[in-house]
Each structure stands twice: as C-alpha cells, then as structure tokens.
Design a protein that fits this description.
Largest sheet: 4 strands, mixed
Mean pLDDT: 78
Radius of gyration: 28 Å
Distance between the termini: 35 Å
Number of helices: 28
Structural class: mainly alpha
Low-confidence stretches: 340-401, 658-668
Shape: globular
C-alpha cells in the first residue's frame, strides 16, 4: 500500500464516518420522536391517532434534532477552526520553546526534526501536557503545514530515545496517511451527536434552578413536563454517546495498526515501539484531562478505560506481538537485546507479513548534475526563463524507477540520512532557528547565499535594521559550507517558527522576502520552490470539498510539462516529440504545447494553484508525470529535483530527501 492508497483509504474512512453519522442521527431522531409521542399521549395532546414512527410532533422532533446535531457539529468545527493550535489550547498543553535547554525536551525536538527531514513533512509545533504522567501522545491539525504534536510529561520522562523515536514515527504516519484530518472531522461529528444529551442536561438544570428560586404561587407554576422532557433527552444522549464511541472504535483501530506498521518501517527497530507500548501496559496511558473522552481516538494509547467493544486501539499485547512477536517473551525472561541487536527470524517473518504493502522499494540513485540556470524577471514582474544550453542526452532505453514512488515512503535509510544531515547544520544556523526572528534571518541568508548577494546590498536592503542585516550576512557565510541539498530541509525547519507570527506579520514577512528574492532581477527554480513552500505555510489553501479529475485540468498539466521540458537537456526540436509521448497516455486528445513565451514561472504558479483541486488519482498521475518528465533526458538536475519536491509539497504529497543526502555523502 503506497502513500496514495493510504490517502484513498483515509478518504473512504471519511465516507464511512458520514454514513455512521447519518445512522446515528436517524436513531437519535427516533428516540426524540418517541419521547415526544409519549409526552403527547400522556398530556392528552394526542388522542392516539399518531404512532411512534410519525405523529403530530414528529416534524418538530426532526427539525429540532437536525438543528441540535448540525449546530453542535458546526459550533465545534468553528471552535477548532485554527486546527491543532485550538486542540492544544483546549487540552491545556504548554508549547515547548524552540530554544529550550531542558535535555528531555531538546531530545524530543531533535527526534521530531530528524523525522521531518526524513519524511519531507514540516515539523509540527510541539506541546507537552505537564500534569500527565501517563505515556501518551497525539497529533492534530487540518493539514500537515499547520499540525501540532502533543506528548505527556510521562512520555518525556519514561521513554528512551529509541522508544520515543518509535512513538514519533507512529504520529508522523498519522500525518502522512491523512488520519490527522480525519480525526479532526471526527471531533466535530461527535460533538453534534452528543449535543442532544447536553441539551437535556441544560433543560433539567434550568427547571431545577427555576423551581429553586420560585416563590409562593409561582413555584407551583413550574412545568414538570419540561424537566421530564429534559431527562428524556439526557437519556437519549446516551444513544449518541454509545454510537459516538462505536464510530470512534470503527474508524480508529485499523488506522492505529497501520500507524504501528509504518513506524516500524521508519525505524526498522520494532523493539523501540514495542518498548513504548510495554511501558504503557506498566505505567498506563489514561489521561486525567477533562477532554480525555473527546481525544481518545487521536491518542497513541487509550486515553480512558473502555470495554473492548468501544476501544479505539487494539489491545496492547496484540499491538506488541504484531510488530515484535518475541518481545513479551524476552521481557518475561529478562533477555532484552541491545538497540543494535538484530530481530530473530521468526520476528522478521511475521513483521514481513504485517508490513505487506509497506515494504520499502529499492531505488536507483540517478546521477545528479547541478544546473545553475536562472530565470529573469520582465518589466511586468512576470518570471521568465532565460535561454540555457543543456547537454544533449539520449532517452534511456530502460525505464528508470519513478521517483514518485518515494512520495510518503519513509525508510530507515531516510531516517539515518536525516540524522546525519541534521548534525551537519552549522551551530550558528541551528541557534538562529530557535527563534522566529532567527528563522526569518536564516531564510533571507539562504536566498542571499544562492543569489550571491553582496554584503553591501544586504545592508542597503535592511537599512533600518543593521543588526539584523549583519546577522543575515553572517548566516549566509555559514551556509556556504553546506551543499545546496540542505536548502529545503532548512526551510522546513524554519516553518514552525513562522507559525508563531500573526497573519499581518506573516504576510509582511512574505512580501519582504519576495522583494529580497527580486533584488538582482533573477529568480532561480530553487528560489521559486522555496517561496512556494513558504507561501503555502503562511497562506494555506482553503479546504477543497469538490475534487476534479486530471482531464479537467489539461491546460494546467500542459503548462507544467512544457515548463519542465524547457529546463531539461532536450533540444528544442526534441521537446515537442517528448511532450507528445508524455501526455498521450493520459489524455485522449493531447492539449497543444504552450509556446516558449508562455513558459514563465508566473504561468507555472497559476497552473500549480489549480492542482489543489485534483483527486487522489490525479495527484498521483501528476507526480508520476513530473518524475517521468524530469528524468526523460537521462539526468536529474538539482533544480529539477527541488521543483519536483515543491510540486509534491503543494499537492500535500511529501517527498523524502534521502537521495540528495546520499549524493552529499558520495561527494565527500
């Protein structure tokens, strides 16, 4: 099962969630309908001509149920509109300072950043529940660019680095698989289902307060029927609670199994995750938080004690045996292996069976040729390519493995490479990334380094911020010690720091960064890629409810392919032939190839914005098409790879950086 299949599975889970929701609402309506019928008959309002299924008050029952359930869901969705940040605040979690000196918090941030570099996903902002000593964690957010990760204090204190890595890998898989967005929707759905019971409780309290404060004759005028009606709604609310827990269990269990399997794939050390699960069995995972019930489907372990029918996670022993079959036996006889010990043959066999569909593919590293081509800006600020000569390369006779297969596929090699890459980042850059101002300085320095902007130009641009200008200059000098493949990881590490900015400050920074990029009237493909990723984080695209098939966006696809071919090593005469070969398998009628004067980054930007409406299959086709296009000349330019990753990120299809980091090692 690849990334796109897991995303499609999450979409199907969303459809099932809607079906469960409709069934639950129908049963709640019938409960309210029956309650009103009994009240009508007992009060002589109805002479018995109606029935339990439909009577004089049924229309009001239906309207009231829909208003309460729909209103409850909409209210919860509005309350959580800020995504993960709103959930963290609801739970009372404390954000971990990026510059923290606490060794356990520093270790957690390092593990998260390494996992981020390996997966190509922006690091989530990290929080801790200080008063929770149990072992638990969860991620939340509407999309990966606005996600948060919350751990308990017990997770920090009780888990080793290997166990913590297993837990973080589990949570990152929820981000990659689309579970995080599904869980946020589930929060809103469950709030609506539980609204009936909450209304019943409100009516009972209101009547009780009225009777308590009433005096004399007014006291006898209190209407007991309202209290009885409220009591009935409160009891019917248990129908909502029953189905709410049932829905969470149905949606969550299989996703948890997949997340466990994906975490083992990331680390290739099953005992790390198994050890974390075992410590849950010893120390517990239940939360004392008031919102533990709401969050039960989002947590790494059970947040409350449920019967097996309502459990949102498989039993702990079952989860451990699925990833490390001999772990519990070894614990029993105190034969725990060292972190570097190999898993025995039986464990490998069962793990291999479990990981069917998750096994990493073997990829061939395509020779990388650094291309220093740039793009010029015309008087209308439209970004255009300059004429560049490329070496002519023959089309490969044997198809090379598509790099698109790497989307969302994180392996232990990726994680190890990310750890090495993370360690090579200069200390001064790492320190700067511990603050929002420092992160902005790093991004300006990154552009200054790649555009070879002189120090006097930097100081002139920041004329009123000379201290900041000096910082940018110094960081730019530090970045010169790094290979170009460090650019995108550094951008990803900067993004959570920018999340702290309010909307006005974030937009002002983005405008200033664009001006800085255009200082020398040139924009390279790398800089275009960086800007698009930063823009997506600062100005996230709205939620798309209606998707389009790829054949509806033929002109945008044509623009993308023609632009990429312009940067390839094909001669002008070859491009038209290759263009037809690439698009013929996708479209019945191949759209005309755009002329050279339309091959601008401005037009490409317009095309990329349309791709957010693509279906899952459409996104997969685009990633495959981009990968095939940039490899069709037999070589992979660094700028092309970075553009591929930017396109993948814009489609919410993260692409790991393993191959680039391997190239760095080979060069050394």
């Amino acid at each position: 099962m690849d990334f796109f299949s897991r995303q499609e599975a999450a979409r199907r889970a969303t459809v099932r969630l809607v079906v469960y929701f409709v069934v639950a609402v129908a049963l709640i309506f019938q409960g309210v309908n029956t309650l009103l019928y009994l009240l009508a008959v007992s009060s002589s309002y109805d002479n018995g001509s109606g029935s339990l299924l439909w009577h004089a008050w049924s229309a009001q029952a239906l309207t009231g149920t829909l208003m309460l359930v729909g209103g409850g869901s909409l209210l919860e969705w509005f309350r959580l509109r800020e995504g993960g940040k709103a959930v963290a605040e609801m739970m009372g979690a404390r954000q971990i300072d990026f510059a923290t000196r606490h060794p356990l918090e520093r270790q957690l941030l390092n593990v998260i950043e390494e996992m981020s570099i390996a997966s190509g996903v922006s690091p989530p902002i990290t929080y801790v529940l200080d008063n929770e000593q149990a072992v638990n964690a969860f991620v939340a957010g509407h999309d990966s660019s606005q996600s948060i990760l919350v751990v308990t204090q017990g997770t920090l204190e009780r888990l080793s680095r290997e166990e913590l890595q297993g837990v973080i890998g589990h949570e990152f898989s929820h981000i990659l698989n689309g579970d995080m967005r599904l869980n946020m929707r589930l929060l809103a759905v469950l709030a609506g289902i539980l609204a009936i019971g909450q209304m019943g409780g409100f009516l009972m309290r209101s009547v009780s307060d009225t009777r308590h404060h009433a005096r004399g004759k007014n006291r006898n005028n209190a209407v007991p029927a309202i209290f009885i009606f409220g009591l009935g709604l409160w009891l019917i609310g248990y129908i909502g609670l029953f189905f709410g827990r049932l829905i969470k269990a149905a949606v969550s269990r299989e996703r948890e199994r997949l997340a466990d399997a994906a975490s083992v794939q990331f680390t290739r050390y099953p005992d790390g995750l198994a050890g974390a699960l075992y410590k849950i069995s010893v120390n517990g995972s239940h939360l004392a938080n008031l919102h533990a019930e709401e969050m039960s489907h989002m947590c790494f372990g059970e947040s409350l004690a449920f019967s097996q029918l309502f459990a949102t996670h498989p039993p702990i022993d079952e989860r451990i045996k699925a990833i490390a079959p001999t772990f519990l036996t070894r614990v029993k006889y105190k034969k725990n292996p060292s972190p570097n010990a190999s898993v025995n043959d039986a464990a490998r066999a069962e793990l291999s069976e479990l990981m069917t569909g998750f096994a990493p593919t073997q990829y061939t590293v395509t020779p990388l040729i650094v291309n220093q081509s740039v793009a010029k800006v015309d008087i209308d600020q439209a970004i255009e390519y300059e004429s560049v000569s490329f070496p002519v390369a023959q089309m490969p006779s044997v198809p090379t493995p598509l790099m698109s297969a790497r989307v969302g596929d994180v392996t232990v090699d990726d994680l190890q490479s990310a750890q090495r890459l993370h360690q090579k980042i200069p200390v001064e850059v790492s320190r700067a990334l511990q603050s929002t101002t420092g992160a902005k300085a790093v991004l300006f320095a990154l552009i200054a380094y790649h555009q070879k902007i002189f120090a006097n130009t930097i100081h002139a641009f920041f004329a009123e911020q000379q201290t900041f200008a000096l910082w940018v200059e110094q960081l730019s000098e530090q970045l010169q010690t790094l290979d170009e493949c460090f650019a995108l990881p550094i951008v990803d590490l900067s993004l959570p720091r920018l999340s702290i900015l309010d909307a006005k400050a974030a937009n002002e920074f983005l405008v200033e960064l664009r001006r800085f990029v255009l200082l020398n009237d040139e924009v390279s493909v790398l800089e275009f890629s960086l800007l698009k990723i930063i823009e997506q984080h600062i100005q996230p695209t709205p939620t798309v409810f209606k998707s389009q098939a790829i054949d509806k966006l033929a002109s945008a696809v044509a623009q993308l392919v023609a632009t990429l071919l312009q940067y390839g090593a094909h001669q002008s005469a070859q491009r038209a032939v290759v263009y037809q070969q690439l698009l013929a398998p996708i479209f019945t009628i191949v759209p005309p190839m755009p002329s050279d004067d339309h091959l601008t980054l401005k037009e490409l930007d317009r095309a990329l914005r349309q791709f957010r409406y693509l279906t899952t299959d459409g996104k997969k086709t685009v990633i495959n098409l981009v990968a095939t296009t940039i490899q069709s000349d037999g070589v992979l330019h660094l700028a092309e790879y970075e553009l591929l990753r930017a396109i993948a990120a814009l489609l919410s299809c993260p692409l790991p950086l393993l191959q680039l980091e391997r190239i760095v090692s080979e060069r050394e």
